[in-house]
Amino acid sequence: MSRIRTLSLLATLGLLLSGCATLGAKYTADMNVPANRAAVYLYRPGSLGAAINPDVVANGVTLASLPAHGYFVYYAAPGELTLTQHTEASTSVTLDVKAGETYYVKGSMGMGFFVGHPHLVIVSKEVAESEIKDCKLVPSPIPSAETVAAGPPAAAGKTAAAATK
Amino acid sequence: MKISGSRWLLSTLAYTLLAGCATSVVITPQSTEKSPSSCHIHATVRYDGKPEYLPPALIADPAGSSPVSFRYAYEAQYGLKETNWVLTAVNPLTLVGFPTGSDSLVITGHVEVVRGDDTIRSYAAAAAMKRSSTVFYEGETFTEMRHRGLLFVRDNLSGQLCHDEALLVAMLKSVPSGSTSDHRTQ
């Protein structure tokens, strides 16, 4: 009986910790934004739903997952940029990106029936700077704007195949 | 009687689950008389967004020779309100669709009639949108709300421009007299 109890405890602990990503350095403003790009900061300050880390997707291309207390920067090309997350529900925001500007998108997790519902919302610089300072960098490499513009890998392959016919 | 009672209960439950999730929209100012696409004003238009969101009354004429031009811009303000998760978790009504939060979005669009550096006339429209979410259904995303809001604002502004079509066409044809501009705001 004690063995079953121990295994149950370990399994519960594993579930609880499985969503915890390894995060990098604490937030600092990125000074290396390319001249013809805008910096889009995505951050998630809250702890609710920490076990759920849905990916942030732009144009069908995954940028990175957004864990609790994590952030990352995407260098976006000018134009419309739509960012989405999906669990049992979907969330999506669209930005009118202008080169040289900085945008902040806050992520959070709300109550869902089976799984939490992600929320993305565009926030002002003042709100973001007060919240993002305690977030840490998501260490995943972020795709470039050119990769995002090309679309998801399957679409890129089809386009290349069509071009060679 | 038992069957119809069950159907009534299920229908009421389904309605309760989804009724609060529809997006409410308030557009200002109230629609003008003419339909949005009933006039065409050819002029130089300064706008750097998607052509789909430009009021259809404005037809960009890059070769326009009039010193009067039109400038169109819009902006969006977002709001997200989430009910405290503890309250949501302990509230038994959550399971029958009690709202767990709400999203709000206000789209404002401005058309300015410009001569040189002076704005001689301006038009504005706004679409305020709000929707609630439940544990079952989030409703429209901000992207969808933004798209609809931009179309509402576009059509409203187009109606306002068409209402003043004769005046605007006369402005486009007029030669500046050198006198001070007439600043009018709709």
Summarize the structure.
The complex is a heterodimer of chains A (165) and B (186). Chain A is α+β, with helices and mostly antiparallel strands and 165 residues long.
Descriptive notes:
The complex is a heterodimer of chains A (165) and B (186). Chain A is α+β, with helices and mostly antiparallel strands. In chain A, 26% of the residues lie in helices and 35% in strands. The model of chain A is unreliable at 156-165 (pLDDT under 50). With 186 residues, chain B is α/β, with parallel strands linked by helices. Chain B has one domain (2-185). In chain B, strands 1, 2, 3, 4, 5, 6 and 7 form a seven-stranded mixed sheet that branches. In chain B, a hairpin with a 2-residue loop joins strand 5 and strand 6. The longest helix of chain B is centred in the last third of the chain and has 22 residues, at 142-163. Chain B is elongated.
Give the topology, please.
The complex is a heterodimer of chains A (165) and B (186).
Chain A: H1 2-18, E1 38-44, E2 55-58, E3 61-65, E4 70-76, E5 79-86, E6 90-97, E7 102-110, E8 117-123, H2 125-132, E9 136-137, H3 145-150, H4 153-164
Parallel strand pairs in A: 1-7, 4-9
Antiparallel strand pairs in A: 1-4, 2-3, 2-5, 5-6, 7-8
Chain B: H1 2-19, E1 24-28, E2 41-46, E3 58-60, E4 68-82, H2 85-90, E5 101-115, E6 118-133, H3 142-163, H4 165-173, E7 184-185
Parallel strand pairs in B: 2-3, 2-4, 6-7
Antiparallel strand pairs in B: 1-6, 4-5, 5-6
